[in-house]
Amino acid sequence: MKKHKIVNDPVHGFISIRSALAYEIIEHPYFQRLRSVKQLGLTHLVYPGACHTRFQHALGAMHLMGRAVEVLRYKGHEVSRDEAEAAECAMLLHDIGHGPFSHALEFSIVGKVAHEDISAAMMRELNREMGGRLSLTMAIFDDRHPKRFLHRLVSSQLDVDRLDYLCRDSYFSGVAEGAIGMERIIQMMEVVNDELVVEAKGIRSIEKFLIARSLMYWQVYLHKTVIAAEQLLVNIFARAKALARQGAPVAATEALQFFLTQDLSAVGMDNSRALSSFVRLTDSDIDCAVKAWRDHPDKTLRTLCRMLTERKLPKVEIRREPFARDQIAALQQKTARLLGISANEAACFTQASALTNRLYSPTGDPIKLLQSSGELRDIYEASDMLNATAFRQETTKHFLCFPKEILSAAG
Q1: What domains are defined for the chain?
Q2: Distance CA 178, CA 188 (A)
Q3: Angle, to 10 degrees, between the axis of helix 254-261 and the axis of helix 224-245?
Q4: How do residues 296-344 score in pLDDT, each as one tens digit?
Q5: What DSSP letter does each residue of 274-285 carry, written as one string?
Q6: Which of 67, 46, 108 is nearest to 260 (CA)?
Q7: What dihedral do alpha carbons 331, 337, 341, 346 form, nearest 10°?
Q8: Chain centre to alpha carbon of residue 173
Q9: Is the pTM of this model over 0.85?
Q10: pLDDT (tens digit per residue) in 385-408
Q11: What 3-state DSSP class applies to 198?
């Protein structure tokens, strides 16, 4: 490019796009599609401002990667121009495989295929189109590059992805508990023996980062009303799939129709038509379908869609112990009688599941602090604010969704 481009971002301010390759990726239809994919699924039904997109997040993550590379270069670590460009491009592409409403429908549209696998398939196709110019980007993304610390900036327990989405999601949801000292954390980054670490004096910023992430999970990402809405959307899609595969007419865009009628659990994105259909899917495909299905002849699908569009969401009960099977079965029977549907159909309205969150995992890729002596210490050992148990423990909450009308009917 003759001159670099500038994007005005509400979270980071001015973001510079200095690389011709990055600009080419951003201009590509695969990436432009992310403008129409919400970052937080149906969270806007609880936090009205949370309508930001994967497009914004990817640009922000690219910007933070550039800042982290600048800091590490200043501290004497060699990162070539090509490596810096490739690392920024890896952040642009790290979420490119997200489908409509992001995590909400992740395992509904393409069977059991995770968005990371779809991202990899899309990167391979982009690399083919661009004559192999993304090979270095993919090596960093897949942790095949000799400088492994670059991959840790892309994916780890302290990567630039998490730094951006915590700040961005906090900003747009209005939940102040998610705010972190992002710039401070980046300034404290170091590399020791090809390992990404943090200078010991940045310990308070890391503690706040871990606490903020935990709070955001329970207050935003796993908010019980958000869970109820997203479970409703999953059940809508499952019911529409079942009807379409029975031969019933289910109105949808051509791209969405493909996923309603095809079982892709085994082949996933290795099916070329699946990839070409997936890249045409955005939130609007689902929105239009749900609106159309509000008047579908099938009572279950029709009712589910009206509940979502009118925000008549299920009631959610949460507790630490699993719900008894007979309690779930009783609620399903009441639902079946209330709505005049079969017991199997009632399972679309009344069901139980569990949510798990862990503040920090000391295995795999732990966050290490660089002491003034040169020693590396795990954050959970070095912290005097949070004990090791609080860092490592896994919290599981069980939830039960059912129509609110059951309560009034019982009363």
Answers
A1: 5-221 (1.10.3210.10)
A2: 20
A3: 80
A4: 999 999 999 999 999 999 999 999 999 999 999 999 999 999 999 998 8
A5: HHHHHTT--HHH
A6: 108
A7: 0
A8: 15
A9: yes
A10: 777 666 667 888 999 999 988 866
A11: strand
